[in-house]
Amino acid sequence: MSRIKQLRIIVLLDDSFVAGQAEITDLNDKLSDLTQKIMSLKFEVIQMMEESYVKFNILHQETVQLDGKVKALSNEMNELLIRVETQTKRDLQNSTGELERLSVSLQEVTLTMQLVQQLVNIDTVMKEATQAKEKGCYFEAAKKLKNIGLLLEQCSDTELEIFNALTSEKSLLEEHFLYDMMEVWNSCLKWEEAETRKDVKKVILKVDGENIMQLEQVMQALNYFEHLDFYLKKFGNKVLKYLLMPLITGKTTVEIHKESNLTIIEVESNAAFPKPHYMVVFANVMDVFNFLYSHLNVVIQENVTFLNKLGEMISEEFCEFLIKNCLADTIPSHSNDLEAYEVIAKATEDFQAHLAEIGFLATSNQSILEYARNVDILFANKTCQILLGRAREIMKKNLHEIMEVGPISPSGHLEKEEPMEKINPFGTLKPEIELSDNTFQFPKCQISKSTHELLMLVYEVLEEAVQSTDFCSIRLFCTARNIFELYGAVVPTHHQKLLETIPQQVALFHNNCMYLAHRLVTLGHEYTGRFPVVLKSHTSTFIDQVTVLRDLGTSVFLKFMQGQRKQILDILRDSGLATLGEDPSITPGIEKAVRQCLRQLELLQTVWKDVLPATVYCKALGCLLNVLVEELIIRVTTVEDIPATTAVHLVTVFGVVIDRAPRVFQEPGRVHQFVKRWQKFRELVLILGASLRDIDDRWADGKGPLAHEFTPEEVKQLIRALFQNTDRRSAVLGRIK
Fold first, then answer.
1. Which residues form the ZW10 C-terminal helical domain (predicted)?
2. Spatial separation of the C-alpha atoms in residues 214 and 139, rounded to whole Å
3. 292 with 310: CB under 8 angstroms?
């Protein structure tokens, strides 16, 4: 039995082998035939592509026929592939080299077929995109064009030249597509601008309602291509510049009407008028947004509308402009107006809600509402800004508009009171020298009216701080301090030229600084008990600014004094006095120079006498007069030879100084108290006109008035210069030691 079974198995294997060989032969024949057909089809497809995209011939019917051939050959290839896979699995262990070669050939044919299929698909999609565009289905056409790009990317490794032509065709198709969409955009949205009268501008936006569906398709297509943001930004900027901004900044009218298939909005603005009321602004702005919502709010993509996109482009800039040019003006500048602001805040909240409802403002954009709700901070900021602005304008006012300040003299005499010791048991403790009633008062002088006005403004600020909330009171107190810091920066800069050249301006600025510093010493103390608790916990004082203001006034005044000193010295040195030692003969220029210096001092007397405090005035004039006499003393005492005629002339010239100079002071007899070298100058004049005996008497063995002012060497030098060398001169020189 086993022998018979073995024979049967051998016979069955032989039959199977014969059948497999026949199948392989048939597959070879089929593959060869299919290869020829595919190569022929490839040639036809490429030829058709070249006709269409290189020679630009329209071959629509040929495309349809080729598409049918591709599908038929694709089916044949799929059947053949199945048979090869089946045969391979069946003869997996007994596969021959013939079957492997067959499989490789089939793979090559498959790749060729895929290439042909891609070419046909690209051509088909291109024609579908063109047809969709011609029908106005721009969004569908956009998707087709995008698909073409993906198909071409898949063929990027292919070396066929036809793919370069297809890539160029795709780019050209996109350009035409964008151009056609812009034509639709511009036909649906038309802008017109005209200047009807001087300062009056009219802007018109026309929307074609009949083509709104086409516009929706265009926007969807542009969004699909990621180009919408660019075009919508340009449109949004026009809406902002020509429609919204004029509504906020000037008198504006908004008209909406229809003409045939067009819906028109006209905005006429007049820049010559002031800003409108905030309610008028809200109403006009809402008219514009309602127009856009009713006639342009097309769907761009799922859950995204035209106004949503427009808001992404311009909402931030719009909100900033609205806040700066409208809402900022509604913030009260006085605490009494804060209650009335609730109405404004409610209107602003409704305005914000409506813009969010129509989709222009995102729910996350709360800038308008947050601005309105921060009224305390805004009130403080605005109030402080206004106050600093007022302070700056006051500081720029003329300094020469003056007023008098200082202790008020009593108009009458009080009745004589009983001595304190008669009614006070401690009367014996009363000091012999009492302080004056004016000891701690600002001295009598003149200041600028603007300085007093500035101080009154500071009092106004502090009174407002007393009545305000904690936050506002802190800001207002800081503003009061900032006003004085601003004073030190603005006034010296704004009045710089006058402070360098005009004596009255310098004196007034000095007084202004000193007056403000004097008031600042006690200013903080005046309000300490009235400030809110939050300020009481801080050091509410201005005392640190006292030194700053005093230094400022002093530095400007001293700088001017240095200029006057230099001017006096230059006059004297240019007069010939400096060359007196070389040429002892006195020239008319010396007397002229001395008189010029005196006139300069007398001019300062005229300007400063009633302006500066008496002590400051005397010190300033005394300092300059001391410069004059000290220079005269130095020039004369260094001369080696002074002829008698020169000495006489010098006495005459210096006599003019002695006669006129003391008159610059209110009490001429006290000139020696303010001019350090005055007595020395008088002694010099006496020496120039005295004899040797007179000089010897005034020296008085080093105990006379001459010895108090001059050193022995200086006196000897003058004697040698004035008198000839005689025994008498030698005797006098010997006694001066």
1. 592-736
2. 10
3. yes
Domain that holds residue 77: 13-134
Q: Which stretch of DSSP H or E encloses residue 462?
A: helix 449-467
Cβ proximity of 545 and 520 under 8 Å: yes
**What are 67's strand-pairing partners?**
none
Q: What is the pTM of this model?
A: 0.68
pLDDT-derived band at 1, boundaries 50, 70, 90: very low
Same-domain status, 710 and 567: yes
Final residue before a domain boundary, out of 309, 338, 373: 373
Residues 190 and 129 in one domain: no
- Domain match, 121 and 206 both: no
224 shares a domain with 123: no
Using CB atoms within 10 A of its CB, is residue 556 exposed (0-12), middle (13-18) or buried (19+)? buried
pLDDT-based confidence at 131, cuts 50/70/90?
Answer: confident
Q: Residue 668 has which token pair?
A: 């001429």
Q: Are residues 616 and 689 in the same domain?
A: yes
SS3 674: helix
Count of CA atoms in the C-beta half-sphere (13 A) of 417: 7
Residue 716 confidence class, pLDDT cut points 50, 70, 90: very high
- State the Cα–Cα distance between residues 176 and 163, nearest whole angstrom: 20
Q: Using only C-alpha atoms, what is the Rg of the chain? A: 53
DSSP 524-573: HHHHTTTS-HHHHTS----THHHHHHHHHHHHHHHHHHHHHHHHHHHHHH
- Maximum pairwise Cα distance, the chain: 184
For 264-287, what is the HEC assignment?
EEEEEEECCCCCCCHHHHHHHHHH
Q: Sign of dihedral through CA atoms 39, 44, 49, 50?
A: positive
Q: What is the CATH number for 634?
A: 1.10.357.150
Whether residue 101 lies inside any domain: the answer is yes
Asked whether residue 537 is domain-assigned, the answer is no
- Alpha-carbon dihedral angle through residues 515, 521, 522, 525, given to the nearest 10 degrees: 150
Tokens, residue 20: 């497999």
Residue 459 CB partners (closer than 8 Å, separation 6+): none
The answer to whether residues 731 and 605 belong to one domain is: yes
Give the Cα separation of 654 and 628 in Å (integer): 11
Q: Is residue 237 part of a domain?
A: yes
Q: Of 373, 403, 424, which one is at a domain's C-terminal end?
A: 373
Distance CA(615)–CA(294), nearest Å, equals: 81
Whether the CB-CB separation of 480 and 454 falls below 8 Å is answered with no
Token output for 365: 């954009």
- The domain tally of the chain equals 3
- Residue 453 resides in a domain: no
Q: Which tens digit of pLDDT belongs to each residue from 662-696?
A: 999 999 999 999 999 999 999 999 999 999 999 99
Indicate whether 219 and 359 sit together in one domain: yes
Token pair for 629: 């006499």
Judgement on whether residues 569 and 685 belong to the same structural domain of the protein: yes
Report d(CA 542, CA 516) in Å as an integer.
11
Contact between 473 and 466 under an 8 Å Cβ cutoff? The reply is: yes
In angstroms, the Cα distances linking 370 to 311, 312, 374, 521 are 18, 19, 6, 41
